[in-house]
Design brief:
Strand content: 25-35%
Largest sheet: 12 strands, mixed
Shape: elongated
Distance between the termini: 85 Å
Structural class: alpha+beta
Oligomer: single chain
Radius of gyration: 32 Å
Number of strands: 29
Length: 708
């Protein structure tokens, strides 16, 4: 059972809520005022018969007085408090922090999951568990929810805002039309477990005030935290068409003697005038604070289970953490990305929008947090994440746990090998993971060119798989293992497709020198989006204007180490018929002629190997002279014979690896590229001769219809 609050502070708050003085309670309980004062200060406790009279005076039951895990219902009712307009006439027409992000569930997933990682309770070694629930309400379910959130009190404010000729007004108007014309409202709930919860007072420094009361307040638990600007929480309100978020928190440390069902709501709207009263912008759903003038300011309250259920905020367990309910959730990006919508159809999002949002959430979680979800050695993952979708309480899409091995198979394999201690120094077989260290020369804080020391980040490289998406890239992260950078490795010679992972700061492991200092440095080098490392104002102010060059050095060292691991040396012909004869033949139709490499792209290097199914795999690097990117070339594979025409072999697959793409079998080069790499695999069914007994020639020809 939850531990109750001390009797004195609890009784003092009940008197304020009931607008009752100590003298009035003393008369009702038939004791002296000094006795009531002694109860409140903790110098004495009431006798059982006095407790019964206290319960009657406060219009509550004996259990409430004995357990003291909730407030009595004798006080002021829960309702909305709207911040009054500024006395000097100033106006804010929206929350500027919310405009820093798009109304995109992928952005929401990145920011909220990062915050949950930052507030993970690490002392027990368990992961933080985050669950996203999409819930569409219609009909009677929607009507009951509107009643629970005191919708009739909010609607006049929305009516005024929707008429304002600016962005927030248009978004609110779309939300109201969706609710009233289509009789639907989408809720998106974000629950985390094994997290700190919104601890602290309603107003003083602490997690609760940082999230619910303030802007640009980043109250983080540890040095490896991902957030540092206090902007990420704004994505919750930005994702709501109605600017409304409800919150239920289970605390990791008691506040007012309690931990469970701490509720509050926050509304973010522009300045408005409703019923001749100017409202500054934000509003809060809560119990009136008896310590504020006129008891107008709303504070959080300890709700009963029935209230929590009516607000769709019932948590799955008593573990500490927080549930955020985004009311009127929408996802502009999913609508723009809807390839199934017919051209010219500019209507509202269809009934499948919650399914699209579901799949986008799963994909975003996998792309950004696959590393945090990866376990290895004796270490559990830092994070577990899942998504489920409901309609009026019924399952539409069952709960789907995000699997890092499915989202990013190669990178997950690489990180797991590092955690298991099974990496190798060089890649000699498929499926291996090579690990090397790369230096990050850390500057001292306060300016100057002096170096604090050399941090050794860990670089992992392994073969790529088709499910990885884009190939030949390196992703970088630090202690919380959220993907910060995802960049291509430039200037590669022909190589097998790979993926690389750079673990910096605390992510490099406890043995890495200057890991804590690297965390601080790299955190200062991240912008609010946390999507790169580079020059920021924070980095300049904390270190020096040239500190970003240390990161450029880390990038150069990383790319050089990758090339040393993956670029294959030039080799002579393979024995046993595995030779490759590079040749550039330009022409079309019956007439062919040679063109010089001065004006034409030319094959600078080719490599080939025989796969298990007998197919040839060819990787070619093409050198592109100035202006040569305009050429369209077709790779043609043929058997190498001593006399007569060479039999042509069909490609089973041909793809662009770097600086080119394949369009209907033709190579299109990137503008300004000086080199390009393609990879092709032949179709064994079209081989006229057994592969082991033959040679191969690759010709580059101009695309069909081009002049020679």
């Amino acid at each position: 059972m939850e531990a109750g609050e001390d009797f004195g502070p609890w009784l003092a708050r009940q008197l304020r809520l009931a607008d009752m003085t100590q003298t009035e309670l003393a008369l009702a309980v038939d004791v002296t005022r000094a006795a009531v004062s002694a109860w409140i200060t903790g110098r004495a406790t009431p006798r059982p018969e006095a407790i019964e009279r206290i319960a009657r005076a406060l219009n509550t039951d004996l259990a409430t007085v004995h357990t003291r895990t909730t407030d009595t219902q004798a006080g002021l009712p829960v309702g909305w408090y709207h911040r009054p307009g500024h006395a000097d006439g100033g106006r804010e027409l929206g929350n500027a922090a919310a405009f820093a992000f798009d109304a995109d569930v992928s952005v929401l997933a990145r920011e909220t999951c990062q915050n949950s990682l930052d507030e993970r309770i690490a002392t027990n070694g368990q992961p933080v568990r985050v669950r996203y629930t999409l819930h569409e309400l219609t009909g009677e379910d929607l009507a009951r929810f509107r009643e629970a959130i005191h919708w009739d009190d909010l609607y006049p404010h929305y009516e005024v805002v929707r008429e304002q000729k600016q962005k927030v007004g248009r978004v609110v108007d779309a939300g109201l039309r969706d609710m009233y014309e289509r009789d639907r409202l989408v809720l998106l709930r974000v629950d985390d477990y094994n997290a700190a919860g919104l601890t602290g007072d309603d107003y003083d420094d602490g997690r609760f005030a940082a999230v619910v009361r303030r802007q640009l307040d980043s109250h983080k638990s540890g040095g490896t935290a991902g957030g540092s600007y206090g902007l990420g929480k704004a994505t919750l309100w930005a994702t709501s068409r109605l600017g409304l978020v409800l919150i239920n928190s289970t605390l990791s440390e008691p506040h007012e003697g309690r931990t469970e069902r701490r509720l509050v709501g926050r509304l973010d709207l522009p300045w408005r005038r409703v019923n001749d009263e100017a409202c500054a912008g934000p509003a809060w759903l809560g119990r009136p604070d008896p310590d504020s003038p006129g008891a107008r300011v709303a504070r959080s309250w300890w709700a009963d289970e029935e209230t929590v259920e009516s607000l769709h905020l019932t948590r799955g367990s008593g573990e500490p953490g927080t549930s955020f309910l985004i009311v009127g959730a929408h996802d502009v990006a999913s609508l723009a990305d809807d390839s199934a919508a017919p051209e010219g159809d500019e209507g509202e999002d269809d009934d499948n929008s919650i399914q699209r949002m579901h799949h986008r959430l799963v994909r975003a979680l996998g792309e950004n947090f696959w590393a945090a979800m990866t376990a290895g050695g004796d270490r559990l993952p830092l994070l577990e994440a899942s998504v489920r979708t409901l309609r009026n309480g019924a399952v539409v899409v069952p709960e789907e746990r995000v699997d890092p091995a499915v989202a990013q198979p190669s990178r997950t394999r690489a990180l797991k090998a590092f955690l298991d201690g099974t990496t190798v120094e060089r890649l000699t077989e498929s499926g291996q993971v090579a690990a090397v260290t790369v230096p990050l020369n850390l500057p001292v804080q306060g300016g100057g060119r002096a170096s604090l020391g050399e941090h050794r980040a860990v670089l992992l490289v392994t073969d790529a798989e088709d499910a990885d998406g884009r190939l030949n890239r390196v992703v970088s992260m630090r202690g919380n293992r959220m993907t910060v950078r995802d960049t291509v490795v430039p200037g590669l010679s022909p190589t097998n497709p790979f993926q690389a992972v750079l673990l910096a700061g605390a992510a490099a492991g406890p043995q890495a020198p200057f890991a804590a200092e690297a965390e601080v440095f790299l955190r200062a080098a991240e912008p609010p989006e946390h999507n790169r490392w580079g020059q920021t104002e924070e980095l300049t102010l904390t270190y020096s204007p040239s500190a970003y060059r240390r990161i450029n050095g880390l990038t150069r060292e990383t790319n050089a180490a990758i090339k040393a691991l993956v670029v294959r040396p030039k080799k002579g012909p393979r024995q046993g018929g595995g030779r490759l004869a590079p040749k550039l033949t330009i022409g079309s139709g019956k007439k062919k002629r040679r063109l010089s490499a001065v004006s034409m792209p030319f094959l600078e290097e080719l490599d080939a190997q025989v796969l298990e199914d007998g197919a040839w795999q060819v990787i070619g690097e093409i050198r592109i002279p100035p202006g040569g990117h305009e050429w369209r070339l077709v790779p043609v594979a043929k058997f190498d014979v001593r006399s007569g025409p060479r039999p042509t072999i069909e490609w089973d697959e041909i793809v662009g690896v770097d600086n080119c793409q394949v369009v209907e079998g033709t190579l299109h080069f990137s503008d300004g590229a000086r080199s390009a790499t393609f990879r092709g695999v032949t179709d064994p069914a079209t081989h006229a001769v057994r592969t082991s007994l033959s040679g191969l020639v690759v010709e580059l020809r101009t695309g069909e219809g081009e002049s020679s």
